[in-house]
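2024-03-11 09:14:02 DEBUG pipeline.ingest accepted 1 chain
2024-03-11 09:14:02 DEBUG pipeline.ingest length=190
2024-03-11 09:14:03 DEBUG pipeline.predict start
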Amino acid sequence: MAHNKESFKYQYADATIETITEAKIEIYKHGLICGAFPIKGKNAIWCYKFRDLEQMQSEINNLVESRISQKNRVEEQRAKRFAPHSLKVGDVLYCSWGYDQTNIDFFKVSKLMGKNKVALIPISSAYTEQNGSYGNKVIATDESHRNSFISEEKNYMVDGASNTITISSFANAHLYDGRPLYETDPMYGH
């Protein structure tokens, strides 16, 4: 059975093609053999031989509902993500990251840029507890600081749904509530 549009067209030259634009799919039918393909793609979503036309139509309906539902979820998530954030100039954010260790970096919102962008500057931290191999507790200070991610003011997109900022592929910044945060001691993993 054909698994891409070109081979389906070649194998079943007399197939009928139905385009369902709201689901962004094309349905190729040849008797009880049916293939579903994305409009802009070439590989089959599925390609089956059905027992009867009723089973075929049921499978097509399920696919259309599924694709439309997925499209609506994506649009809803996008709207939330690009919604205006509630960060203010002076808000402090923290970023917890590290493999086999926990590092904490702090940032301060230095500038608001439109409804979903901010400029951040790194700020330093101070120990409230030093427990050696049991880790340390750190809090943000107001001092400017060069950290592992950025050494000067840098612009970032804010996820409006959660007020978080992706600093790098492995670290997200969250609003800091002022409580001491756990960090691995420099002698045990940094």
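2024-03-11 09:14:41 DEBUG pipeline.report Residues 92-188 form one domain.
2024-03-11 09:14:41 DEBUG pipeline.predict end
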